[in-house]
Amino acid sequence: MLRMKNLSKVYRTHMIETHALRGFEIDVKQGEFVTVTGPSGSGKTSFLNIAGLLEEFTDGEYVLDGVNVKGMDDNARSRLRNEKLGFIFQGFNLIPDLSLFDNVDVPLRYRGFNAAERKERIEDALAKVGLASRMKHYPAELSGGQQQRVAIARALAGSPKLLLADEPTGNLDTQMARGVMELLEEINAAGTTILMVTHDPELAVRTQRNVHIIDGQVSDLVRKSPSLSTVGHAAQA
Amino acid sequence: MFQYYFLLGLRSLRRNPALTALMVLTLAIGVAASISTLTILHVMSGNPIPTKSDRLFVPQFDNGPIESYKVGDKPNDDQMSYRDAVNFLNSKAGERRTALFGISMPLEPERKDLGVFVVRGIATGGDYFNMFEAPFLHGQGWAPEADQRGGNVTVINRKLSEKLFGDADPVGRRVRMGGFDYQIVGVLDTWSVIPRYQHLIGAETAFGDEEDMYIPFATAINNQVGRNGSTGCQGNVEPGFQGFLDSECTWIQVWFETATPGDRAALQSYLDSYTAEQRKLGRLKRNTPNKLYNVMEWLEFQKVVDNDNKLAVWLSFGFLLLCLVNTIGLLLAKFSVRASEVGIRRALGASRREIFTQFLIETTVVGLVGGLLGLLLAVGALALISLQSKALATVAQMDWVMLLTTFVLAVLAAVLAGLLPTWRACQVTPALQLKSQ
């Protein structure tokens, strides 16, 4: 699904060069739920931005769902991002003056679906996160947990292959965080690959696989057998 | 996508009402200022007779005295002497030809309640009405015999007809002017020609009222009707009216109509041979080139649109530019707080081009609203300008060309103002933006 080989990312100013990633290697298989951990400044965010085609890398190779993204122009990258990826951010990043319906509509517009298909997908996605009845509401009328659910609905509406989540529970209280986490596990169980950056070690141990980044390199791949109890729990929720 | 962006643009107007209002108002005021001055210029410099403006010609040659003449001097006057006017009228040059000069006479109405009042008009040939496409309400122009013999006939305008006779058709009735009874042969319907190109010299303004009445050229000479216009005299003038007629004084305007625009060359060579002939007779001592002006050239030459009008347009466009700079600033402010939205949209699959389109359409919406308000303001400004004088009321009229121009100008201005802010919005790096949320 996602493979990076010997990838590097260098930020250059006229004074200094900063190596955010160097010799970075990762291979995420379809259907995996991978957490990415690491101290601040280790390169987690650079990795996620590059994986999400939001930033270009300096050197190396990155293949996303069989597509080599090196040298792609902005249009092609944007299209690929729209078709294959879904984003969930720590700050939810909903557009405040659009209703929930219109927020979920945004990526579908860029995909070019017709009105009927967009409507169906939006209603499905909002139903999946339990907010079908609040389609006409605005983000400010919702709690943080509900807003993050809308963001998840927006990420899911275009049926992405890979969901990229950056501290999705970072701004939520424990109970809401648990709800969001269970929702992500459910989505993963339904077949969507998830890559999640987190600081929370508790969340990291819940997933099948934990990638630890230090100084721009993958230092440790922790592979675990799938936690059946977690999956089972999510399925019941 | 256009519809989607357009709706987003409309919605964005509500996002920050104060900023939006300021932007729309700034744009509207700039557009209104330039459109109202441009409208006046547009009407003033319009073609008053598009069907034949390139077939109607004013001849010009110099009959001024040789004394104090230097080679390269401009012609002495734009008008003709009586002798030349009569020679032209009797010639076969062009399809039609007419001479005219301004007159004014006291009119003694039959209705005693009206009292005596002064009417202004022109003395001209019967071809005048056909040449300049005068609209008749009743009757017609006078017969050629009236031109030859100088019959006491007249054509009056609708306003005068209604004043004297109400709604009745007055053709055949008589009206006493300047001590003579004139038989009315025709009544002209309202004839709003802008500018009044036919009779520019000696008229107060090219945008004034219609003539009250018209009488045959020969009649005006026979009856020695009072002239109303400018007269230029140089050299000897014998005493008496006949002496004036025989002099080189210039006070008559002559028009030729040709069958096609291409006949201009033939008319020019007629003019050249006429002046050569007159030189042989000992007249026209100066050597200024003879000229022909068609209608638009004549308006330009007579400076119907003076430099002040043009300056006003330049100034108003300068003002619009100022408004644009302000709008750029306001748009920059408006879009800078939208950086996070750009980041989100980019992450969700919008290319830079799509963001560019979205924001440019959004500024277009601002432009349209600004244009609409600008139009209202311009109409209001023109109404105010119209109150100043009758001549201004004539030219302060908006037509559909200016209506369209207003919108094009407003949208163009908004898009122009939106380019920099839009380009800046597109430069948002989504990664940075999303992290800072």
Portion of residues in beta strands of chain A equals 25-35%
The largest sheet of chain A is:
6 strands, mixed
> What about the largest sheet of chain B?
6 strands, mixed, barrel
- N-to-C SSE series of chain A? EEEHEEHEHHHEHEHEEH
Main attributes of the structure:
heterodimer; A: 237 residues; alpha/beta; 6-stranded mixed sheet; 4-stranded antiparallel sheet; 38% helix; B: 437 residues; alpha+beta; 6-stranded mixed beta barrel; 16 helices; 10 strands; elongated
Structure notes:
The complex is a heterodimer of chains A (237) and B (437). Chain A is built from eight helices and ten strands. Chain A has 237 residues and is α/β, with parallel strands linked by helices. In chain A, strands 6-7-8-3-9-10 form a six-stranded mixed beta sheet, with helices on both faces. In chain A, strands 2-1-4-5 form a four-stranded antiparallel beta sheet, with helices on one face. With 437 residues, chain B is α+β, with helices and mostly antiparallel strands. Chain B has 16 helices and ten strands. Chain B has a six-stranded mixed β-barrel with strand order 2-3-8-5-7-6. In chain B, helix 1 crosses helix 13, helix 2 crosses helix 13 (352-388) and helix 2 (17-44) packs antiparallel against helix 15. The chains are: A alpha/beta (237), B alpha+beta (437). The A-B interface holds A 45, 49, 52, 54-55, 74-75, 78-79, 81-83, 87, 89-95, 97, 106-107, 109-111, 154, 158, 166 and B 1, 4, 11-12, 14-15, 340-341, 343-354, 429-431, 434-435, 437.
SSE inventory with pairings:
The complex is a heterodimer of chains A (237) and B (437).
Chain A: E1 2-12, E2 17-28, E3 33-37, H1 44-51, E4 59-64, E5 67-68, H2 74-84, E6 85-88, H3 100-111, H4 115-128, H5 144-157, E7 162-166, H6 174-189, E8 193-197, H7 201-206, E9 209-214, E10 217-223, H8 228-236
Parallel strand pairs in A: 3-8, 3-9, 6-7, 7-8
Antiparallel strand pairs in A: 1-2, 1-4, 4-5, 9-10
Helix pairs in contact in A: 3-4, 3-5, 4-5, 5-6, 6-8
Chain B: H1 2-15, H2 17-44, E1 56-60, H3 82-90, E2 96-108, E3 117-124, H4 128-131, E4 136-139, H5 144-150, E5 153-157, H6 158-165, E6 174-177, E7 180-188, E8 213-216, H7 217-222, H8 240-246, E9 253-257, H9 264-280, E10 291-294, H10 295-301, H11 307-336, H12 339-347, H13 352-388, H14 390-395, H15 400-426, H16 430-435
Parallel strand pairs in B: 3-8, 5-7
Antiparallel strand pairs in B: 1-9, 1-10, 2-3, 2-6, 2-9, 4-7, 5-8, 6-7
